[in-house]
C-alpha cells in the first residue's frame, strides 16, 4: 500500500498547530542547554534534581562499564540479571521502605508490565481520567474493563466502586503527581476508599520519584502509606536523571511480576551504565535531602513570581508549572518567543492535553540558581506582554 496518506496526516497536524517540532540537544542536560548552537535556560527537562550530568553518577557508570561492559544482551529471566540489577533493586526497596522492588527498562514498560499481570478479561480498572498514556496502554493490554473517574476525585471514585459487582476483581490506578498540571493525587483519601471496597491500589509516581517524600522517597512516603498501597510504580528517567522503571510492593507482587510482567520477560534488561548510575543516585539521595529541598524552593519561587506577573498556573502545587494558554497556536508561538529570548520550555498541545487546554509546561530543577530563575521571570514577563497573555 502507498503511504502517501501519511503526508496528508502530517500536513494536517502542521495546519492545526499540533505538530511536534523535535529539537536536537547539543550539550549535556543541565540548567542551561545548547540547541541549534544557541545557549538557552532549560525549563523543559524532567531533570528535577539536576542529576542528568552528575559527576558521581557518571563516575559510577564508567566504572561499571569497565568492569561489566555495556549491555546484558538478554532479558532478565534468561541471562539479563547481573549483580548490579540485584543491587539496584535491593537499594531501591530499602530507600522506599518497601518489601521488594523490580526494575524495568522504563516507566512505560513498568506500567505495561504490571497492569496486565494483575487484571484481565472480566476484571475492572478504575482509572483517573487524566492518567498517563502508559497507564492507558497498560489498561488496554490487560483487556479488563476500564471505568474512568473524575480527576483526583475520591467521591466519584467511591460512587463507581460502590456501583460495581462486589465479587469482581478491581484495580484502582492513579498518577501520583500529574505530569501536565502539576497537581497531586490525594492518595490517603483514595487509599481509604479503595480499601473499603476491597480493590487493589496502584499509583504511578513517575513525577514524584525523587521529588515527593523524605529525600525524594516518593508519594507513598509523602502520605506515610508504606505497606498499604499495593503497587507503587516509579521511574528513574526523570529525577534520577538516567532511564528505567520500577515497581515497589509486597514480596509476592514482585515475585509475580518477575514471572508474568511481559516487558520483563520479553525485552532486554536495563544496560549496565544505567543501572550503575541509578545505584549512585539512590546513594546520593539517601545521604542528603538537600537537592529535593532546593527543587521545591525553586519551584515555589518561580510559581509565586509567575502568578504575581498575572499568569494562570492552573492547579500546580509541585515543581511542574503549566502556563495555561488554551489555544495551541498561541502556545506554540509562546514557546518560539521564549526560545528567541533564550529560554527553552515547550508548548504542550493535543493529544498530550485536551483540545483547548494548550499550555507551556515549565519544569523546575534543583540545578537552577536564583539568577536563572530571575532571568526566566523577566523572559516570561516580556513574552507574556508581547503576546497579550498578561
Ligand atoms: C514519564 C512518565 C512515565 C514514563 O516513564 P519513562 O521512564 O519515561 O518511560 C510513566 N508514567 C508517568 C505518570 C509519567 O509521567
TrEMBL record:
Which Pfam families is this protein grouped with? Aminotran_1_2
Does this entry carry the keyword rRNA-binding?
A: no
Instruction: Write down the CDD domains for this protein, in alphabetical order.
Output: KBL_like
Instruction: State the needed cofactors, names only.
Output: pyridoxal 5'-phosphate
* Keyword entries, A-Z: Pyridoxal phosphate, Transferase
Q: Which domain of life is it from?
A: Bacteria
Record InterPro entries: Aminotrans_II_pyridoxalP_BS, Aminotransferase_I/II_large, AON_synthase_class-II, AONS_Archaea/Firmicutes, PyrdxlP-dep_Trfase, PyrdxlP-dep_Trfase_major, PyrdxlP-dep_Trfase_small
Tell me the ranges covered by the Aminotransferase class I/classII large domain, including all copies: 39-378
Q: In the UniProt record, does the keyword Transferase occur? A: yes
Signal sequence bounds: none
The Gene Ontology terms for molecular function here are:
pyridoxal phosphate binding; transferase activity
- NCBIfam families per the UniProt record, alphabetical: gly_Cac_T_rel, PRK06939.1
What subunit structure does UniProt give? Homodimer.
Its family remark reads: Belongs to the class-II pyridoxal-phosphate-dependent aminotransferase family.
Name under which the protein is recorded: Glycine C-acetyltransferase
Native source species: Candidatus Woesebacteria bacterium RIFOXYD1_FULL_43_18
